[in-house]
Amino acid sequence: MSTPIGPTDSSLVPRFAGPATFARLPRTDEVAKTDIAVVGIPFDSGVSYRPGARFGPAAIREASRLLRPYNPGLDVSPFAEVQVADGGDIAVNPFAIKEAIATVEASASELLSQGTRLVTLGGDHTIALPLLRAVHRVHGPVALLHFDAHLDTWDTYFGEPYTHGTPFRRAVEEGILDTEALTHVGIRGPLYGKKDLEDDRRFGFGIVTAADVMRRGVDEIADMVRQRIGNRPLYVSVDIDVLDPAHAPGTGTPEAGGLTSRELLELLRGLASCNLVGADVVEVSPAYDHAQITATAAAHVAYDLVSLLALTAKKDR
Ligand SMILES: N=C(N)NCCCC(=O)O
Ligand SMILES: [Zn+2]
Ligand SMILES: [Zn+2]
């Protein structure tokens, strides 16, 4: 296998110059074979409150200019170990949710069939459903680790089944998740009723609340989560609103009392031994952001997810 093409060297070309691919990486059409693609899905037609996550991918890429090639948190140089490249954006129909979902599923499936692993930048949380469908086609039912303030296992909004509050209920109904290994982390805030929690438990989810993370600490939570996942193929979905609005103001449905970005990154680093097969970072809405706080957090989350995937991808290389 040829040596991976890495990012533009920021000691030679200023990091604020040139196109904003993720982490200044090459595009997928500039490399022979992509082991890990970072792909944007500029879609926010599924939101129930503030819009704007369609601009998330561009904002995260812009904030990713400052990332550096070695990740000390996971002791890996992801861009040197495997070929990581920016796959651009999936062009989805903003006026037709079902069609958009079908486009995401087809595009993701095409990339996965080429042996490329995906870290997807949203977009609102609706996109997790077609991404999970695509992953299921390759791996069968997967374990899900879902970082979010919200359960996203609600049934419908305005009678509509495909929204950013419903992807994981649909995924369970479709049988694409391994119901022995489903965990939400960071849950908090008011619900519609107690039944939300009962439904969620019935679908097989375990809940680690934001307060649990604070009380028990990241190491204990990471241990618990790892035990539940075992060596199953794992999909990680990160809704940036899992972070406290102080750490992620630029999002559509903010809830007080969330995780710090430090806690989230440390929880992710606890997954180094897991069999990660795909991941997304969703719900960055830059119009509500300040000083790139949210986009920076999302860029770092995506970088750690790429690093985790690189740890598994390099074994196959
Ligand atoms: N997936 C996110 N971010 N939010 C879901 C909020 C659902 C609601 O409006 O109740
Ligand atoms: Zn959320
Ligand atoms: Zn969500």
Automatic annotation (TrEMBL):
Pfam families named in the record: Arginase
Entry keyword Hydrolase: yes
Residues that bind Mn(2+): H125, D148, H150, D152, D239, D241
An example molecular function term from Gene Ontology annotations: agmatinase activity
UniProt record similarity statement: Belongs to the arginase family. Agmatinase subfamily.
One record GO biological process: putrescine biosynthetic process from arginine, via agmatine
Protein name (record): Agmatinase
